[in-house]
Design a protein that fits this description.
Elements: H1 4-22, E1 29-32, E2 38-41, E3 49-55, E4 68-74, E5 85-91, E6 97-107, E7 113-123
Function: Forms a strong non-covalent specific complex with biotin.
Organism: Callaeas wilsoni (North Island kokako)
Keywords: Biotin, Disulfide bond, Glycoprotein, Secreted, Signal
């Protein structure tokens, strides 16, 4: 019986992990991050294209924050396993800047959908000599 215990544990873990990955992550809907920014994403079409809005809770400008449009693309492939990669661009309505996000949609151990992203923000600068400070 001692020999069977590790095998059963491995088998349980393998079956459990398979069950977690079976739930597909959907980008469509409202998302809120840990800083209070939120975005709403519309449905993803057959080509993986989607649109929505982003309302940031943080800004480096003194301008009034306004909801801003976004456009994106979800990776569509035959081997996609339900936790897709994606990217989108936010064209800020209240500043001379634009941000690109790239990330992946995960289903965590509790079955909750979670987005993990990285971003680059590009601000307009007056000339090429100031280019070094334009991207964050």
């Amino acid at each position: 019986m001692v020999q069977a215990t590790p095998f059963l544990l491995v088998l349980f873990l393998a079956l459990g992990a398979h069950g977690l990955s079976a739930k597909k992550c959907s980008l469509t809907g409202r998302w809120v991050n840990d800083l209070g920014s939120n975005m709403t994403l519309g449905s993803v079409n057959a080509k993986g294209v989607f649109a929505g809005t982003y309302h940031t809770a943080v800004t480096a400008t003194s301008n009034e924050i306004k909801e801003s449009p976004l456009q994106g693309s979800l990776q569509k492939s035959s081997n996609q396993k339900g936790q897709p990669t994606f990217g989108f661009t936010v064209n800020w309505s209240f500043s001379d800047s634009i941000t690109v996000f790239t990330g992946q949609c995960f289903v965590d151990e509790d079955g909750k959908e979670v987005l993990r992203t990285m971003w680059l923000l590009r601000s307009r600068v007056e000339n090429i000599k100031s280019d070094w400070k334009a991207t964050r």
